[in-house]
Amino acid sequence: MKLIILDRDGVINFDSEQFIKNPEEWKPIPGSLEAIARLNQDGYRVVVATNQSGVGRGLFDMTMLNAIHDKMHKACALVGARIDAVFFCPHAAEANCQCRKPKSGMMEEIAARYNLANLKGVPAVGDSLRDLQPAAALGAQPYLVLTGKGMKTQAAGELPEGTLVFPDLAAVVATLV
Predict the structure, then answer these.
(1) 164-166 and 2-6 as β-strands: parallel, antiparallel, unpaired?
(2) By three-state DSSP, how is residue 170 classified?
(3) Which of 13, 55, 80, 110 is 20 to 30 Å from 87 by CA-CA measure?
(4) Three-state DSSP class for 61?
(5) What is the pLDDT of residue 107?
(6) Model confidence, pTM
(7) Catalytic residue numbers?
(8) How far apart are CA 51 and CA 90, in angstroms?
(9) Backbone CA torsion sign across 25, 26, 32, 34
(10) How many CA atoms lie within 13 A of 38 on its CB side?
């Protein structure tokens, strides 16, 4: 089975310092949904792993998060793309949970859900260090995209060993399929 793990904000859709709090604020990065369609056509299962601390902070509730994800799924369907699953951490940073990236709980859950002993070689695409660290720790191949917070992340350095850097998700997919 081919699996790829994508962060949401800054990889699939434009990010916001004020959080994506409703469906109207969710806007896909040009080419990202088509890139997901290409992955699907090449036999990849596409999963999203995203921190959504806006829920824990009370900026939006689970109904609103579901509405945002519903918009994302419908936008994907319009271009022949499919996201197989969305894994998310709803907790605020101070909750100190195991599922919030950069901790590895969410990535471990993905491996368990897909009956994988580990994530060795699984592409994991993110725009921040906290997206890449748990993936790399579990053997996934980290990909940094320069959309979202990616340029700041690259400039800050200290990327996990072997991180591959690309302009955007479409460029990552072009090397995979």
Answers:
(1) unpaired
(2) helix
(3) 80
(4) coil
(5) 97
(6) 0.97
(7) 7, 9
(8) 7
(9) negative
(10) 14
